[in-house]
Amino acid sequence: QVQLVESGGGLVQAGGSLRLSCVASGSTFIMGWYRQAPGKQRELVAVITSSGHTDYADSVKGRFTISRDNARNTVYLQMNSLKPDDTAVYYCNAKGSYIYWGQGTQVTVSS
Q1: Are 58 and 35 a contacting pair, CB within 8 Å?
Q2: Distance CA 25, CA 35 (A)
């Protein structure tokens, strides 16, 4: 069983930046971030493999950067040029023997 603990959410004005962190209690192959806005389905934001291969949703390409520290079992999401449409609960996700989810962290972008 792997536990994920997220941090770094908050309230920011449009155009601002936030950095999310997620620490896993064990090693995983793929780590990533998903988000869910009110009334919408959860959607992929970005993923990164243990070798560093990344993939992003089109809506965040060029603004968000995912990275990971394998020695610390930690994944980061640097979010720049934030927009009100980025407002959502952001969930850390990890895939190893099973699929694991964090508890979520709120990101609110004001206009």
Answers
A1: no
A2: 21
